[in-house]
Amino acid sequence: MAKVDKPKILVVNDDANSLFALTSLLDQWAEQESYEVIAARSGEEALRQVLMHDFAVILLDVNMPGMDGFETAEAIHQRVRSANIPIIFITAFVADELDRLKAYQKGAADFLFTPVIPQILHAKISVFVALAMKNEELKKQARQLSQRTNDLISSNKRLLQEIEERKVAERQNHAKDEFLAMLGHELRNPLSAISSAASLLGLPAVTADAAVRAKKIIQRQSQHLGRIVDDLLDLSRAMSGKILLNRAPVDVAALIRNCLETYRTTGRTADYDVHVELESGWVDGDVTRLEQIFSNLLDNALKYTPPGGTIDILLEADEEDVVLTVHDSGVGIAAELLPHVFDVFVQGTSTLDRAQGGLGIGLALVRRLAELHGGGVEADSAGPGEGSTFLIRLPRTERITEPNSQIMETTERAKPNVLLIEDNDDGREMMAMMLSCYGYEVRHAADGLQGLAVAREYRPGVALVDIGLPGIDGYEVARRLRSDPDMRHIRLIALTGYGLAEDQRRVLEAGFDMHLVKPVDIDSLMKAIASLTADVAPPAAAVAATRQ
Questions:
Q1: Among 215-219, 323-327, 378-382, which stretch is predicted with the lowest mean pLDDT?
Q2: pLDDT at position 139 over 50
Q3: Structure pTM?
Q4: Integer Cα distance of 413 and 487 in angstroms
Q5: Domain-by-domain residue ranges, the chain?
Q6: What is the pLDDT of residue 308?
Q7: Domain 418-534 falls in which CATH fold?
Q8: DSSP SS3 for 84
């Protein structure tokens, strides 16, 4: 147990002899009773001592010049910290009842008359010293109890926080487990269709009509797989803050009309009653990412609205924002799910998710892409079965009246020879066959050093170079080609599975003219080759043809 400080006794008397006699008498019992004696010659000095120390009891002479005992007692008890110090008045006169009343009104605990009887003084002092020691012990115990209580409260808060963090981690792990299960489901479906269609093409009795249908299935499901990979990459970029926008003035109304036309052409909106009301509104944004925002919102509406349902698309512009609203009459959103619809991996019930498909990251990407454009997104629903409403706000910019792009007319011209450097045998063979079908003469190589040797012999107009090559990588291939005066004229297109801004920067620094992300659509590849071999070389911004 912690050591308790010795109680202090203050003796106040203006007479030096009386003061010495009292302090000497008290000093006889100081060791036995465990207290400390302090002396004061006046009321003013007594007040100074009270300001510096706490006292178990004060022995105060009544008759003192200047500030007498009553005035001193009153001043001591006016101070909050010393208001409860017991005071024993010492006087040489027998106090009458009025004097006693006055003393008690000033805070007296008792009287002693001189000459003081030692036994009586000892008895009275012992009581007050013992009481002071008990009070001090109780105060220390109270402080210790308060500290223990605070420690328990802090421990309880930490425990509750750890429990909540564990619950959040468990929910996140469960959501990730469900996501991985859904990812496996989403990948197996198109892979199964592609495998079956490829097997059908290999059968000897396959009809021409069946072969055409099988090829369309392979093409359609391959595109679906590409979209899944793009969504996963976009999710990674969004969570790490590495999405880079190629900003330009965009008429959102025209963009939405083009997207809707694609949906109508493919028949995706055929079973729905789609109402469209679009007011022209311009924003400073990335066309590809703005299309992704609208497509994800429309896909979400189609996914959770039964055939025959209604989808309303409204675009308005106020002084500051362009506001897009997509409302559907579908299954709605439960109140407990509504605050989390833009969180990663969040969807509705597992049964619905499995049946409808999707990875549960579309709305999370919508929110992130809207924020990157300086805007925001909101969701609202009256509950299950009451439909859903999603609202996007994007900062408005000035309308652009002059055309900001021109459609490149394709004319028949001599096609350049093409060198394809790719280490994947199947990928190299298929791309070479497609280029040949489009009238290009193609040579190919399986690694970087072999590619350089073919380039010196073949002198192609365009080289398609995979970045991840054995031996020397695609960056080194580009650097060596650019450093050779006889081959620096070759237009270089990088083929890679990486599409971050850092990857694009490295590609351009190595000497490439353009950066395409796998899987490369054949139409995009044809346009890229045509743009690089036109009379005017494209600017470095031609990398906008890639996904970032």
A1: 215-219
A2: yes
A3: 0.47
A4: 22
A5: 8-116, 248-348+357-395, 418-534
A6: 93
A7: Rossmann fold (3.40.50)
A8: coil
